[in-house]
Amino acid sequence: MASTYLKQRTVDNDAVTSIQASDQVSQTVKGVIDHIRRDGDSAVRQYSEKFDKWSPQSFKLSDSDIEDIMSKVPDQVIKDIKKVQSNVRKFAEAQKNSLSELELEIEPGVFLGHKNVPIQNVGAYIPGGRYPLLASAHMTIVTAKVAGVPNVIACTPPIMGRIPHATIAAMYLAGADEIFILGGVQAVAAMAVGTDTIRKVDFIAGPGNAFVAEAKRQLFGEVGIDLFAGPTEVLIVADHKADPFTCATDLLSQAEHGPDTPAILITTSTEVAKKTIAHVDELLKILPTAELAGTSWSKFGEVVVVEDLEKAYTLADVYASEHVQILTENPREALVKMKNYGALFLGDRTCVSYGDKCIGTNHVLPTRGAARYTGGLWVGKYLRTCTYQIVEDDKASGELGLLCGRAARVENFEGHARSGDLRAHRFLGTEFDWIKEGNYQSNGHAV
Q1: Active-site residue among 233, 302, 322, 399?
Q2: Is 27 annotated as belonging to a binding site?
Q3: I need a surface site. Which of 132, 178, 185, 390 has the fewest CB within 10 A?
Q4: InterPro entries in the record, alphabetically (predicted)?
Q5: pTM for the full model?
């Protein structure tokens, strides 16, 4: 039986791309970046006034500002933030502990190694807009601090002209060293290029709207970034035993992110497929975020019936979705069968929303098929694996010099070859026409 589409998207992938990175968005973002690069803080203030109606004396929160804000956040919210951040921290620490530094003596006197060195300055962007994403503070800042990043600058926009207290609490408790009430392209650009009041960073992490995503794309190379972000995606693989109401609920839980979220069901059961569609239609009548979720479902929702789970996993790998939820009798099977996904959510006791909000894995994940070649944000993204080498034996250095000379001359790199020749001459006594005695001083040591 071939795959049967009971519901197909009405907008193709190219259209998604054009929505997110249109020429108009690109040009607008470029103009803002160029202006901030040229005029610094005055340009930042101009765009904050224009886009957010926000122009305080200082965008940076003082210690007393933060203390006052923290006092206004309900105790239960603080407790929940601390609990979620504890989960994120535990998992990030376990990830870091799985990484090893090494030093290997590949032959007598020749040592090769690597160290995991934290990025020194990181910028974390915490979105506001229609949703104040507290969880993004946990994912970006806590993880950076676990990696050992000494300086984390965090920016978040005002919401309707007001400071988002709970978001600030999350940023502060996560360990941000400086907190700015600043949003959009102006925040990303200021962190990337640096101004008189905002420290230049080496790496920027965190999700955002199309303008923020485009700013990160344009600035990549000048700074590192976590991922090229696209709309949130969810894909469910379900067998005949899956509950259609659960499928529908979990599809809509992600569709509410925005009007362009792909929400896909691949199932082996026609009955599960039809009932899921019916439940989605009914749930949209009562969902407070139905305007967004319904638009995504209408334009980007898909329901596919396949012959068996092997074909379901194969098709799911083609999509390479950001979030893949497995609602099958044996969900752990997907760990073996599937290869392309941002994150797996196994079994009906698990849901994508847990990953988004509280369970402890990172919710900054690859979209638009990028799961074929990269994973999501994790503690390792904030670490640079840097190699080193040292030759402590005269004979070993001389022999490497001979090998280097031969290898380099095959490639016509005479300068490289002569660096090797010099060591061969110094430590083995090998003669070379271009080396004359007295041309160098030797202390008799390799280093």
Answers
A1: 322
A2: no
A3: 390
A4: Ald_DH/histidinol_DH, Histidinol_DH_CS, Histidinol_DH_monofunct, Hstdl_DH
A5: 0.92
